[in-house]
């Protein structure tokens, strides 16, 4: 009987994985944004600001991505998704802003790691916005190029985080390093084998795990 | 060799020195205790005053001013360890 309950529970979780991932990302992003912003207001320490903004963009990216999925699942077989239909236009716009938000989130995540080494310039963020905009435009035609850039940036982030971990030997920074490695592997596998449903499930489960680690690192005292 | 202090550590040191001196300390004394050059000290104190972490209070005894912690400055000290842990965890 317990076995049957477990099977039913697993089936429910599997069917609602997108929703669970969406809620996990949204909740984690909101808590990290709120806490980093609070620390920034208190200390004016730039690292907090960039980190907060990275998770603001990540949250927005989750919202647009989830909306896209909902639109496609509701209208995918409908005649409303025909060429030039308003629904299709909304879907395309959401796709573009989703790329832009995700690119900005990754840029700012990496920037929060290296901002001390870069000369402080008020144009830095403007340049990142511009690059993210161009990248989103490219992604619209060649999605794989977008993900290759994201993966390269994440690998760079892993290298920087590893150096920081070696210098500090902090157990929590080890967990952050692990999160970056897991999310990068998830992106690589999705890029190479994303058409398999089992890979998509693996990627979603990994992402949920990563965001739960980030949530733990944020709320622990 | 002592580890180089970063921005958060320096602010913490300045504010802690004010707190340890019963919330009133003169500029020279604070600079010596914070172990900063006069230029660095001036820059930090101006910034901390602008961000409302400390305030200049007139000393009734000699008409000179002393530094005192603000409510926000006290909150910074209370949250310092948490902020430092956050910075180290995420490599900020």
Description:
The complex is a heterodimer of chains A (221) and B (92). Chain A has one domain: Up-down Bundle (Rhopdopsin 7-helix transmembrane proteins), CATH 1.20.1070. The model of chain A has no long low-confidence stretch (mean pLDDT 88). Chain A is built from eight helices and no strands. Chain A is mainly α. The longest helix of chain A has 30 residues. Chain A starts with a helix and ends with a helix. With 92 residues, chain B is mainly alpha-helical. Chain B has a single domain, classed as Winged helix-like DNA-binding domain superfamily/Winged helix DNA-binding domain (Arc Repressor Mutant, subunit A, Orthogonal Bundle), CATH 1.10.10. In chain B, 60% of the residues lie in helices and 11% in strands. Chain B contains four helices and two strands. Chain B has a two-stranded antiparallel sheet with strand order 1-2. The interface between A and B is medium-sized, with 26 and 19 residues.
Summary tags:
heterodimer, A: 221 residues, mainly alpha, Rhopdopsin 7-helix transmembrane proteins, globular, B: 92 residues, Arc Repressor Mutant, subunit A, two-stranded antiparallel ribbon, 4 helices
In short:
Chain A is mainly α and 221 residues long. Chain A has 8 helices and no strands.
Might you state the CATH topology name of chain B? Arc Repressor Mutant, subunit A
Oligomeric organization of the protein chains: heterodimer
CATH superfamily of chain A: Rhodopsin 7-helix transmembrane proteins
Cα gyration radius of chain A (Å): 19 Å
Question: What top-tier CATH class of chain A fits best?
Answer: Mainly Alpha
Task: Please state the structural category of chain B.
Answer: mainly alpha
Main sheet makeup of chain B: 2 strands, antiparallel
Largest sheet: spatial strand order of chain B = 1-2
The total of beta strands of chain B comes to 2
**SSE string of chain A:** HHHHHHHH
The share of residues in helices of chain A is over 70%
Write the CATH fold name of chain A: Rhopdopsin 7-helix transmembrane proteins
Average pLDDT rating of chain B: 88
CATH superfamily heading of chain B: Winged helix-like DNA-binding domain superfamily/Winged helix DNA-binding domain
Count of all domains of chain A: 1
Return residue spans of chain A where pLDDT drops below 50 for at least 5 consecutive residues: none
Strand content of chain A: under 5%
Number of domains of chain B: 1
